[in-house]
Amino acid sequence: MYDNSLGMCGKMGKVIALYQLYDRTEEEEWKEQADAILDRLVSASIYPLPFDYSFGLIGIGVGFEWLIRKGFIDACPDLLLKEIDEVLIRIIVFRPQ
Length: 97
Fold this sequence. Notes:
This protein has 5 helices and no strands. With about 100 residues, it is mostly helical. It is elongated. The termini are far apart. The mean pLDDT is about 90.
């Protein structure tokens, strides 16, 4: 189901699934796997990612927001998502009409 992209159909979707599995089973193995993938996701370059939900930046942003709201990660969404927001704004502002 998950591919090698970073969005919801890729690594971010897998991270969310693993955290939910951990939440339901309390088996540390699932949290450790989610943490490891999330660490790689955070350190990955967002250039040149697509900006869509399934495979790109929007999916990553929504995923981080969900993880923060559900309490799986402790972070300030404004700081965490600043770079993604800036890229998305540039894409929207400068897209061809």
